[in-house]
Write a structure and sequence with these properties.
Radius of gyration: 26 Å
Number of helices: 5
Oligomer: single chain
Order of helices and strands: HHHHH
Largest sheet: none
Strand content: under 5%
Length: about 160
């Protein structure tokens, strides 16, 4: 019966070490998930801010204010430069790597809506036209959908604030 005491001690030590390892693994997983969520949250904020800057730039380009005449090559170059300046292309590629597919698809749809607006502005659509108002309604819908899927991915309640 001399072996019961050492076996009990070893068994107790094994259980203690095993429980500690399981707890550490669970904590590591939780912290890893929190870091991934924080990374996505930051990237989502950067992307939606970039889209907002693109929209503002397009709106400025669509206003008639003595710049290059709509439809001219100089106007097209200026609009394209303003469209690219906020860096939405680059951020969208980052999203494609780390975001879930529904977020990537919604990000692409919002980007395409803005790119379509860019193309119509290059062709001469003005901020005060019906065509531009329709484009803006499409932009609103695409960006609202993007925010909705981003919020769902982050686990943010629909009643947590403006969307």
């Amino acid at each position: 019966m001399e072996w019961i005491s050492p076996v009990s001690t070893l068994l107790g030590a094994a259980i203690g070490v095993g429980a500690t390892l399981l707890a550490d693994r669970a904590r590591w997983r939780r912290e890893s998930a929190e870091r991934e969520t924080a990374t996505r949250r930051q990237l989502y904020a950067e992307y939606t801010a970039a889209l907002s800057r693109v929209r503002s730039a397009l709106h400025e380009s669509a206003q008639v204010t003595g710049g290059p005449s709509p439809g001219s090559e100089e106007h097209a170059r200026e609009v394209r430069e303003r469209f690219l300046a906020p860096g939405a292309y680059e951020i969208r590629h980052q999203l494609a790597i780390i975001a879930p597919l529904d977020v990537v698809e919604a990000a692409r749809a919002a980007f395409i809506a803005l790119r379509t607006t860019r193309d119509r502005v290059i062709e001469g659509a003005r901020a005060d036209s019906e065509v531009y108002a329709e484009l803006e309604a499409g932009n609103d819908a695409a960006i609202a959908e993007l925010r909705r899927v981003m919020r769902r991915d982050l686990g943010v309640s629909a009643r947590s604030g403006p969307g």
